[in-house]
Amino acid sequence: MSASTETAPETSSRFGTFALVFGIFFGIFYVICDMAALPMFTYHPGTDRIDFGFAPPRRDEGPAMYWYGWIANSALGASILGFLAALLPEKIRSKIPLALAWVVPVVLLPVLIYSLKFYWRW
Amino acid sequence: MDFVFDYISVNTFWTILFIAHALLAVALLGALTHQAAAVLAPPRAGAAGGFVTHFRSVSGPRYAAAVCVLWVCAFILGGWIYAKYRIYVRIPIEQEGLFKTLGAFELKEHLTTIGLGLLPVYWYLWKNARNTAFGSSRKWLTVVLAAICWYAFLTGHVVNNVRGFGL
Fold first, then answer.
1. Is residue A6 part of a domain?
2. Which residue of A6, A109, A112 is in closest CB contact with B136?
3. Does the distance separating the beta carbons of B133 and A11 come in below 8 Å?
4. Per the count of CB atoms within 10 A, which of A83, B38, B43, B149 is most buried?
């Protein structure tokens, strides 16, 4: 079944559109935030300190964690886009290919593997 | 949370959290594997009722809500433990130079997060399981989530074997 036949009018409820667009862009934003070092906040687990945005590790305070901040940014961005997409007229909403829900994560996989190239030492 | 440490040691607390995380992962793995098998190779009508046939004969829609809840719970516990992992597990592994192990775990972290973002559309597709227009996407999204879950489970297992408990 092609993607185009999967977007029949009755399949594009507002929640369905929100969920689809959220799922697509959450992954995309997450990869962008990871590769461009764009966390909403930085958590320093050694001291329980939280800094807004990106903050490098502090001397003698252990590592800095950006993962929570990437998730927050991705969730916010994807929610906004999902909400806006849900407001679109039915005619446009029904044209969003449903197959992107699984194609996007598959496409993002090699990007993520490349982004971790530092670790692939032989 | 400090009152907990009046009754159990810090190590015991984090070990309990980790075991709970692992048990949720086992349940999630089972549910997603059954569901993926059901959509990839549904049993033929009139097929003999052997183990494989029963394994793939589950009702996919009945698993969808459980999969979402299990994924979210396992993710929350994993995210909680992750802060301790960053200090007490990752740093020693870095010092041992096991970079591929760390990279595999980083990939797990990324994939499970992307999987988390896919749960609303996954749930929506299974909630409308009778809608045949959703069939292909529902099938492949379920397979993608099952593959992520298998990767995450095996990687977590390997990292736990590398570092172990109570260290």
1. no
2. A6
3. yes
4. B149
In angstroms, how far is the first alpha carbon of chain A from the final one?
42
CA distance B156 to B167: 16
The number of distinct structural domains making up chain A is 1
Question: Is A76 contained in some domain?
Answer: yes
Q: Shortest CA distance to B40 belongs to which of B144, B153, B122, B154?
A: B144
Domain count, chain B: 1
Which residues of B fall below an 8 Å CB-CB distance to A? 79, 82-84, 86-87, 90-91, 99-100, 102-104, 106-107, 109-111, 113-125, 128, 131, 133-137, 140-141, 143-144, 148
Q: Note down the domain range covering B118.
A: 2-163
Q: B114 vs A22: CB contact, 8 Å cut-off? A: no
Provide CB contacts within 8 A for A47, sequence distance 6+. Answer: A58, A61, A62
pLDDT digits (tens, 9 = 90+) for B24-56: 999 999 999 999 999 998 877 766 678 778 777
Q: Which domain holds residue A23?
A: 12-119
**Inter-chain contacts counted by CB atoms under 8 A, chains A and B:** 124
Could you state, in chain order, the average pLDDT of each consecutive group of 10 residues for chain A (122 residues)? 44 88 98 96 94 93 94 98 95 93 97 94 70
Burial class (CB in 10 A: 0-12, 13-18, 19+), B105: buried
Residue A4 lies in a domain: no
**Are the beta carbons of A98 and B107 separated by less than 8 Å?**
no
Cβ A5–B133 below 8 Å, yes or no?
Answer: yes
Specify the residue for token string 């598959």: A106
Band (B167; pLDDT cuts 50, 70, 90): very low
Q: Is there a domain that residue A2 lies in?
A: no
Which residues of chain B does A78 touch, with a Cβ-Cβ cutoff of 8 Å?
Answer: 117
